[in-house]
From TrEMBL:
Enzyme Commission number, as recorded: 2.7.2.11, 1.2.1.41
Any single biological process term in GO: L-proline biosynthetic process
A Pfam short name: Aldedh
Name of protein: Delta-1-pyrroline-5-carboxylate synthase
Gene source species: Carlito syrichta
Cellular compartments per GO CC: mitochondrial matrix
Length: 684
């Protein structure tokens, strides 16, 4: 690593001003009077003298900082001549390489004590010519000379904007290509130093032409950008990256804008038109079944040996899955007829002043999903029905399946000219980078592992996240449970699809059932189904030879594994669920209605069932058509989130020249606040 720095002139100016004040004679100070001393003009300081006086202070600062980390630094002062004179250039190159070989950080600065004033010239035209006029051009010249991998140019703004930062329409340019200069309006030069952003861009393009990658980023706010250098080196999306190769498709920012405008057009369509799009997509899923399954086969072949069995099962598509998807989509189409623009409340505020609360789309949704290509048409249909723009980010393991499913979705959208409302992010965008697009995305919905959800919740500081981090579902078998019902419900909840987030993970058994036919039948069934049992602490204490004791009672196995624990009562079961559960789906198996109702009312989870499998916790099975996910949050939507969960509201007020002052104490009007009838929903 090399460091190009400025600051010698600023250090020197401060030091020389202090010296000049001290050098004023006492007689002059007394003669001038105190007030005149305050107004005493300090002569204009010559920059070269300031540089000479400030070099030692600048280097002392770097020495003090690097010494804390036991890193040695060395100062190198250069001028244009050191690059243009062949012998001096070789000497400089050799010195820098020797310092780097010894893990010493070279601190490089222009030798401003002897450098001539900068003159306008026509440099930056070729790889072999660049004048060292400021730190930007010096850094570019050194980067090419030393064949560096990366040049990081730190500024006092986030990067390069298409117009001066701070202006209303200024947008950060994530990737800048040679030839894009005409699309950028440069502002004034930097408050400090000799160059502005225009000089930085010219230097960056020159270095890029010489084979060095360049990033311009903000280095002035340690609390915000304290990790800016390591973030850039790790490939995170920070600042403006200069690239010679333009991607084939749009950037994710452009896709976000397309989803926003497409979503707004989608919301203005008639409900019948949105339903027609979804019906057409359902037809395409069955008509193009062979192409979809062929693409999915490629994904499965590439994933073989790399993905665990539960993930491979999620990745797999089949004819029956596609048929179920098509049925679910038609349910969504039917329920979408009066979703957007439905009147929820009407109030007469005053005479000829009426207020309505109506449903509207949330805006742009970002749905991130792993190993679940069937998720794409489900989520797309829900977004279409609710009039939302949609950004989809699928896992690379399902790339072939996602690609064809997205093409079919866009084909369906095209029948009403809203093809761009649903976008599939194909760039190598990290999830963390997508979560920073707070001006483009209104809601993030993760569909995947608990680790994925936690990572997104951590990264999305400015965007709401809807979802659940874990699916730790419990089933409590009460002392008054039916043997046959308990066996059927446990088998279905655990074994039907163990990789699902609504699969059973912990079985709670009432203490009185131990060593009874019900308990023996449950254990025999689990053994036949090849379910690995983990014993909870209480259960283990009852057994002479117990299965492996559970490492944690808060575990989502996602496979044919199950924790069994013993509880003393229904209240004990509820307490266990509240302590170790994830507020997803919890079930009681009992013939006692009073006990069941107590459980239903007291368990604080998104879904609570009596004598029903945990696997019913699903948008399709609830009659929602499909779901974007299951939410365990307590705001906006909870449980399986279907069409209703993707809508918000706005208020419409219709008046006739009404002003608030008319309703004051001495005004001519009075508030009525009368509730008005709401148009009936179409429930067909």
């Amino acid at each position: 690593m090399m460091l190009v720095t400025s600051g010698a002139v600023a250090f020197g100016k401060q030091r020389l001003r202090h010296e000049i004040l001290l050098s004023q004679s006492v007689r002059q100070a007394l003669h001038s009077g105190q007030n005149q001393l305050k107004e005493m003009a300090i002569p204009v300081l010559e920059a070269r003298a300031c540089a000479a006086a400030g070099q030692s202070g600048l280097m002392a600062l770097y020495e003090a900082m690097f010494t804390q980390y036991s890193i040695c630094a060395a100062q190198i002062l250069v001028t244009n001549l050191d690059f243009h004179d062949e012998q001096k250039r070789r000497n400089l190159n050799g010195t820098l390489h020797e310092l780097l070989r010894m893990n010493i950080v070279p601190i490089v600065n222009t030798n401003d004590a002897v450098v001539p004033p900068a003159e306008p010239n026509s440099d930056l035209q070729g790889v072999n010519v660049i004048s060292v006029k400021d730190n930007d051009s010096l850094a570019a010249r050194l980067a090419v000379e030393m064949k560096t991998d990366l040049l990081i140019v730190l500024s006092d703004v986030e990067g390069l904007f298409d117009s001066p930062p701070g202006s209303d329409d200024a947008k950060l340019i994530d990737i800048f290509y040679p030839g894009d200069q005409q699309s950028v309006t440069f502002g004034t030069k930097s408050r400090v130093g000799m160059g502005g952003m225009e000089a930085k861009v010219k230097a960056a393009l020159w270095a890029l032409q010489g084979g060095t990658s360049v990033v311009i980023a903000n280095g002035t706010h340690p609390k915000v950008s304290g990790h800016v250098i390591t973030d850039i080196v790790e490939g995170k999306k920070v600042g403006t990256f200069f690239s010679e190769v333009k991607p084939a498709g749009p950037t994710v920012e452009q896709q976000g804008e397309m989803a926003r405008s497409g979503g707004r057009m989608l919301a203005t369509l008639e409900p019948e038109q949105r339903a027609e799009i979804i019906h057409h997509l359902a037809d395409l899923l069955t008509d193009q079944r062979d192409e979809i399954l062929l693409a999915n086969k490629k994904d499965l072949e590439e994933a073989e040996g790399r993905l665990a069995a539960p993930l491979l099962k999620r990745l797999s598509l089949s004819t029956s899955k596609l048929n179920s998807l098509a049925i679910g989509l038609r349910q969504i189409a039917a329920s979408s007829q009066d979703s957007v623009g439905r009147v929820l409340r009407r109030t007469r505020i005053a005479k000829n002043l009426e207020l309505e609360q109506v449903t509207v789309p949330i805006g742009v949704l970002l749905v991130i999903f792993e190993s679940r290509p069937d998720c794409l048409p489900q989520v797309a249909a829900l977004a279409i029905a609710s009039g939302n723009g949609l950004l989809l980010k699928g896992g690379k393991e399902a790339a072939h399946s996602n690609r064809i499913l997205h093409l079919l979705t866009q084909e369906a959208l095209s029948i009403h000219g809203v093809k761009e409302a649903v976008q599939l992010v194909n760039t190598r965008e990290e999830v963390e980078d997508l979560c920073r697009l707070d001006k483009m995305i209104d809601l993030i919905i993760p569909r995947g592992s608990s680790q994925l959800v936690r990572d997104i919740q951590k990264a999305a500081k400015g965007i709401p996240v809807m979802g659940h981090s874990e699916g730790i579902c419990h089933m409590y078998v009460d002392s008054e449970a039916s043997v046959d019902k308990a066996t059927r419900l446990v088998r279905d909840s655990k074994c039907e699809y163990p990789a699902a987030c609504n699969a059973l993970e912990t079985l709670l058994i009432h203490r009185d059932l131990l060593r009874t036919p019900l308990f023996d039948q449950l254990i025999d069934m689990l053994r036949v189904e090849q379910v690995k049992i983990h014993a909870g602490p209480k259960f283990a204490s009852y057994l002479t030879f117990s299965p492996s004791e559970v490492k944690s009672l808060r575990t989502e196995y996602g496979d044919l594994e199950l924790c069994i624990e013993v509880v003393d009562s229904v209240q004990d079961a509820i307490d266990h669920i509240h302590k170790y559960g994830s507020s997803h789906t919890d079930v009681i198996v009992t013939e006692n209605e009073q006990t069941a109702e107590f459980f239903l009312q007291h368990v604080d989870s998104a879904c609570v069932f009596w004598n029903a499998s945990t696997r019913f916790s699903d948008g399709y099975r609830f009659g929602l058509g499909a779901e974007v996910g299951i939410s365990t949050s307590r705001i906006h939507a909870r449980g399986p989130v279907g069409l209703e969960g993707l809508l918000t509201t706005k208020w419409l007020l219709r008046g006739q020249d009404h002003v608030v002052s008319d309703f004051s104490e001495h005004g001519s009007l009075k508030y009525l606040h009368e509730n008005l009838p709401v148009p009936q929903r179409n429930t067909n």
